[in-house]
Amino acid sequence: MNSAKESASPLFSVFTVLLSGMLLGTAGTAVALAPDEASVTSLGVARVAIGGVTLIALAPLFGGSRRRIIALIRRLGVWVMAISTAGFQPLFFGATTRTGVALSTVLTIGTMPLFTGLISRLLLREKLTQVWVAATSLAVTGLVLRSWDQLETIDPLGVAMAIGAGLCTGFYVNGAKYELNRGGHAVELPAMAYTLSAILLIPLLIGDDLSWIASTDGILTALYLGFITMALANTLQVVGLQRLSPGPTATLLLADPLTATILGVFILNESITSIAVVGLILVSVALVWQGVAQSRVNRSSIN
């Protein structure tokens, strides 16, 4: 595993994180196409549970071990990942009901790279570069412009919940990096984290209508959310983290709202304003900027 890590192209880690962000960006469209009876809570729990079970089942195919996965229950970083994943679900979805999807997304996704970078600096002693600060600022500005005409009346609790969701993501990325620095496996780590997270979220399903998951559309939606937007997307993210710092990784994950917007326009027939297009261009420029800069850092470290 280490030899593969060393021999990979400097662009490989950047590519995997960008692809992770793109796959994560399809989750909103999948949820929008889910059966009407499906609540965001049950969809979130199904997504996490299926993601965890999938990774446990497939771990041996990627050099992982189910026995080692079970042993990870004693690892601090894994519990940070699990609690962060569990906390994100009610915080973000609760924020969308109080402040609207647009503002919640801007606050959560916009604060995610900021929290991730600051936590990595404080706890992991990772350096924050000028390029990261500039690229992240540009991307956040683009996100604000993207949702400028959709921002609704601010609800203090909703704002706090959205920011809390961004903080959860920051802790998740740093928890994963902490374990990777100690030899953690890219599939084993999220496998245990999502399994623990699903267990922690079970109480939220009390009184919820779960009949939707028995329908064909329900099963397909749950499987897509679990397989693609959870298991595959987040494993790619952890793979990229093997050679990237948490801050740049979180910035590259801003491919998530970019992808979500494009799918919204072409799949869900959503409209988009000219100022939103400008915002998307700024996000795209920031992603390219951060990606090129990070690949150069990786290449120089190899040389």
Please, could you describe this protein's structure?
This protein has 303 residues and is mainly α. It has one domain. Helix content is 76%, strand content 0%. The protein has 14 helices and no strands. The protein has helices at 2-7, 10-24, 27-32, 40-58, 66-71, 76-99, 101-123, 130-146, 156-180, 188-201, 216-241, 246-252, 255-266, 274-302. Helix 2 (10-24) runs antiparallel to helix 11 (216-241) and helix 7 (101-123) packs parallel to helix 9. Mean pLDDT is 87; it is low at 1-8.
Produce the secondary structure layout.
Layout: H1 2-7, H2 10-24, H3 27-32, H4 40-58, H5 66-71, H6 76-99, H7 101-123, H8 130-146, H9 156-180, H10 188-201, H11 216-241, H12 246-252, H13 255-266, H14 274-302
Helix pairs in contact: 2-11, 2-13, 2-14, 4-6, 4-10, 4-11, 6-7, 6-9, 6-10, 7-8, 7-9, 7-12, 8-14
User: What class do helices, strands and sheet pairing give?
Assistant: mainly alpha
Sheet with the most strands, sense and barrel status: none
Portion in beta strands: under 5%
Low-confidence stretches: 1-8
User: Based on the structure, what is the oligomeric state of the protein chains?
Assistant: single chain
In a few lines, what is going on in this structure?
The chain is mainly alpha-helical and 303 residues long. It contains 14 helices and no strands. It has one domain.
Tags for this entry?
0% strand; single chain; 303 residues; mainly alpha
